[in-house]
Amino acid sequence: PNFTGVWRLDTAENLSGFMQALGFNFLVAKAAGLARITQTIVQSEDELSFVFEVVPPLLAPRRESVVRFGAAETKMSDDAGRDMVLLNATWEGEVFTAGLHYVDPPHELTIDRYMEDGKMVEHVRYPSKGIEMRRIFRRV
After folding, report:
1. Mean pLDDT value of segment 10-38
2. How far apart are CA 11 and CA 97, in angstroms?
3. Strands (DSSP E) along 14-72, which ranges?
4. Measured between alpha carbons, how far is 4 from 94 in angstroms, rounded to an integer?
């Protein structure tokens, strides 16, 4: 798939519970569902370039990252500004997949990005806690 485009969060599945598993308090986790999140992506042969924007701004209203396919590590931050590292980003068939390490406090996750019914899905799993969430974006 080609993820190039501007994508706005349409729906989220289990976002609040997932954020609480990451250590966010109940109110912040609930409020996150109200934010308008936009991801602008440019895909090339060997990388994905992201611009992440959150309105209203939490702690990190706009961030940019470039993820090279096959890179061992890519430093990034989440929508609240927490540092994280994308690990071994690669394609598995039609799925862009990577490990995801939160720096402080530490959490070990996985993240997959794929297309489903014309929408882009960001599917994050927290294996050691047995919880996952999906954010579904529509092209704008």
Report:
1. 90
2. 21
3. 36-43, 47-55, 62-68
4. 15
Distance CA 82, CA 64 (A): 14
CA–CA gap between residue 81 and residue 114 (Å, rounded) = 24
* pLDDT over 90 (residue 66): yes
For residue range 45-61, list pLDDT tens digits in order: 999 999 999 876 665 56
| 117-125 contact pairs (CB < 8 A, 24+) | 119/10, 120/3, 120/7, 120/39, 124/18, 124/100
32 — phi, psi (to 5°)? -60, -30
Which run of H or E residues covers position 85? strand 83-92
What element of type H or E holds 89? strand 83-92
- pLDDT, position 58: 60
Spatial separation of the C-alpha atoms in residues 120 and 108, rounded to whole Å: 23
- Which runs of consecutive H residues, i.e. helices, occur in 6-130? 15-21, 26-32
Q: Which amino acid is located at 122 in the chain?
A: E
Cα 135–Cα 27–Cα 54 angle in degrees, nearest 5 = 45
Cβ-contact 10, 136 below 8 angstroms: yes
